[in-house]
Each structure stands twice: as C-alpha cells, then as structure tokens.
Write a structure and sequence with these properties.
Layout: E1 2-8, E2 20-24, H1 28-32, H2 34-40, H3 44-61, H4 67-95, E3 99-106, H5 109-116, H6 118-121
Helix pairs in contact: 2-3, 3-4
Keywords: Membrane, Transmembrane, Transmembrane helix
Pfam family, one: DUF2628
Protein name: DUF2628 domain-containing protein
Length: about 160
C-alpha cells in the first residue's frame, strides 16, 4: 500500500477539485538524477544544494585517499533525495500556504482519490471521520509503577 497526501490551496475548502495529490514513496528517478528531479518539482534551493554536495563528492571521489568518502557522499545524497523528496515538496507547498487535508493509504492513486472524494459523491461534503482519544489527565484510574519504577502519585 502507498500513502497519498492531499494538499489544498490557500483559502480552499476540504475536498477541493484543485487538491494536489503527492505519493509518499521511494523514487528511482530521484535516486539516479536527484538535482534534475528537484528542479522538475521546482525545489530550486534544494536542487542547488544537492548539486553542490554531489559536485564536492565527485571531486573527492577522484582523490586517492578520500575516494570512497566521495562516492559515499554522492550515494547518501541521492538516497536522501529519493526517500525524502516528496516530503520536501510537501514542505515547500506548506510554506506557500497549502494545507494537508488528508493522508490516505491505498493501493493506487485512483483508489485514494475515490476515498478522498467519497463524501462529496454521497452528498455530505462536511462529514469527516475523526477519532478522538481521551487525554491522560481526564482518566480517574491511577497508573501503578511498572517494572519496579517509582510512581509519581505523591508528586516529585
């Protein structure tokens, strides 16, 4: 299953047609071409930083002593962009005023869209399914010390 993030533009209501859908996953293209992938997704500063770091790693890889360190820097940078690239895109959109409206786990994008827009089709656009858990301070049950640790029932 994949995780899909639904972001809505500033001032839009929940389940807006202009919602941007971003799949949070490992990207092979971002692994092999990290700064080009970042440029494609308009992450200019991150692309410049990755280009500089990979250039430094490339120069270091030609040195006889620091060769493995340079290759390691290049691989680590590529791996970071491949794993955290979608998170960088979401962070950039949030800085621009977009808000995360929903996070949905589904097999594919079509199923995630169907789940996201399901309330609109049912005619109830304002219904959101939430789970609220009680706060720990509202519980009347006192927790006993565990594994021989001292309880703080009397205060500190």
């Amino acid at each position: 299953m994949a995780t899909f993030l639904f972001l809505i533009p500033p001032g839009a209501k929940s389940q807006d047609e202009n919602a941007r859908i971003i799949r949070d996953h490992f990207s092979w293209i971002a692994f092999f071409l990290p700064y080009i992938w970042l440029l494609w997704h308009r992450a200019w500063l991150a692309a410049a930083l990755v280009f500089a770091i990979q250039s430094l790693g490339s120069v270091l890889s030609e040195h006889p002593v620091f060769g493995f360190a340079g290759v390691g820097i290049c691989l680590a940078t590529s791996l970071l962009v491949a794993l955290e690239g979608p998170t960088m895109i979401v962070a950039g959109l949030r800085r621009a005023g977009w808000t995360v409206d929903a996070v949905i786990s589904a097999d594919d994008r079509a199923t995630a869209e169907e789940i996201y827009y399901m309330d609109i089709k049912a005619g109830e656009p304002e219904t959101r399914h939430t789970v609220s858990l009680p706060a720990s301070e509202t519980s009347t049950r006192r927790h006993a010390p565990m594994l021989g640790l001292v309880g703080f029932g009397e205060g500190r």
